[in-house]
Amino acid sequence: MNHYTIGMAGHIDHGKTTLTKALTNVDTDRLKEEKERSISIELGYAPFKINDEMEVSLIDVPGHERFIRQMIAGVAGIDLVMLVVAADEGVMPQTKEHIDILQLLGIDKGIIIVTKMDRVDDEIKEIVELDIREAIEGTFLEQSQLFFVDSLHQIGMDDVKKGIETELSGRQGRDATGAFRLPIDQVFTIHGQGTVVRGTVYEGSVKEGDVLDLLPQRIPVRARQIQVHHQARESGRAGQRVAINVGGVSKNDITRGNTLVATGHYETTQTIDVALTTVEKISFPVKQRGAIKVHIGTAEVYGKIVFFDRNELVEGNEQIVCQLRLDEPVVTRRGDRFIVRRPTPTETIGGGKVIDAHGDKYKFSDETIRMLKEKMVASPSERLKQLILEQKAIALSDASKTLTMTTDDVLKLLESEQQFHLLPSKEITTEKVILSLKEAIQVELERYHHNFPMREGIKKAEMVQTYSYTYPKRLIEWVFDEGSKEGWIIAVGPFAALPNHRPHPPEQWKKRIEQLLLSLKKEGLQVSALNEHLQAQQLPQAIHEEVIYYFHHQHVLYQIDEKYSIHRDSFQHAVKKLRNDTNSNFSLKKAKESTNLSRKYLVPFLEKLDKLGLTVRQEQERKWRDTEVEQWLTNK
């Protein structure tokens, strides 16, 4: 079954409520004041049975100028409008304003109902029809069906029902697969039940027991019970008029204009980029940063309008891109419709579509206008690509909110577009960004290897920190991990290197370094200070630390204290000899007899064995760790 909402619009006292009752047998004027004054003040709702394949809610909206807020709230989510015109009065000021608002809200289907036919003759009937056709010329209603009815005597009702069925047949029902969103237009309490909210479901669906968010207050609530036109249901979906009994919140915490949403899928905003279409005639210029009243969903919020290509809006019937900066947060998404009115003197300025629900501050320039126009026509794929161009990677949840798409729809987009890549961290990037980062890392590694050829590589944490100013850290870490798997990066402990890199002395100092090592090797265990060897070979002071780092980290030399380092061949030979000359435990005296070292060298040498894990000191002796010794000798 498809679910539809039909809105009824028109001038005050043109018979909308009577027509609603004639079609549905429901009196939508509920309030005592509405009964006494015979005018609709609040929105009225009624179930409208057409056939077994259509579930329809009919909304009777107030026609008086002072109740324009309720009117806009009522028609904001409708699929079809019924424009009501009384035969004895014809087109009136509110009729024209309602047509303007409907047009601006993007309503694209409607029928016209001429009521009170019992009050006019055929000649007046013909004049009224001409009057209406002239008023709707150039609007979405221009080709609409027109019906003449007498609601009190049930004349013409069958024709109206058939006309509605014709208009709705084949019309796609609202998509209920998105994240649930219900702009609230009524709040009340029921004794023994608690707080109840009503509204037309814009997107998605809701089930009993669902935990939802009340925005902008950010209050978590639970959908305890759901009704559709006073009938209990287990769920409600897009296009339906629903009442939800919400737990966890009081009536005093909710107001019309708040929104009930699926948890985690929507954000509030106060800065909105929009495409604004103005009405045909604006009575007074709209100044830069002028005060406005914005109707979006069921919310009515004051704010100011910001232009980027002019200092005032004078001409009517024009489309411009601009920004709305609101005094209070609202819930909206790209593509949502809105109306802008001047607070005083009161008049409708225009309306249009949301381009970006989370606008930024921009310069007053042609460049900003160009950017907004490009954003206005961009496809979801192009917008996602632009987001990634700016941020390098964006969380799936953030992309869903910004693009006003469900996470499932974003995932489908990623599957259909090979340029996008979803990381294990649930962040989206593009192959272009990945390739760019990969090339940057390779270039940096090449530079580093050239500048520091004697090092194993650059510390991974250091590179992550360097590139985190441009790329998200999780993206950098993922590229490193993938690089290790693919083999274009080699991980050496905490270091990263290119696969063809091997630590080596700089070519211009290679012979002197080899001569230095040869001198150290000849000295055996009782070596001269390492700095003396460096100076003897006339190696530049600037590379001393690099050479020492290379010697020690490549185990070319074994450092026994701050001054002295022993060539690995000499060191290994001494370890083997000492092990062969001693038992499992040995004393300082036994070590001296084996190595023939003075105390100056012997004590640091033995302490080095402890540090390497080859021996363990036990009071005045040391104990060999034979397994570790065997493994160390094998590896070396």
TrEMBL record:
Principal cellular location given in the protein's record: cytoplasm
One Pfam family in the UniProt entry: GTP_EFTU_D2
CDD domains reported in the protein's UniProt record: SelB (cd04171), SelB_II (cd03696), selB_III (cd15491)
Compartments, record wording: Cytoplasm
Gene Ontology MF term list: GTP binding; GTPase activity; RNA binding; translation elongation factor activity
Gene Ontology CC entries for this record: cytosol
Entries under Gene3D superfamilies matching the protein: 1.10.10.2770, P-loop containing nucleotide triphosphate hydrolases, Translation factors, Winged helix-like DNA-binding domain superfamily/Winged helix DNA-binding domain
Domain of life: Bacteria
Keywords recorded for this protein, A-Z: Cytoplasm, Elongation factor, GTP-binding, Nucleotide-binding, Protein biosynthesis
Residue intervals of the Tr-type G domain: 1-173
GO biological process: selenocysteine incorporation
Role noted for this protein: Translation factor necessary for the incorporation of selenocysteine into proteins. It probably replaces EF-Tu for the insertion of selenocysteine directed by the UGA codon. SelB binds GTP and GDP.
Record NCBIfam families: selB, small_GTP
Name of this protein: Selenocysteine-specific elongation factor
Native organism taxonomy: Bacteria, Bacillati, Bacillota, Bacilli, Bacillales
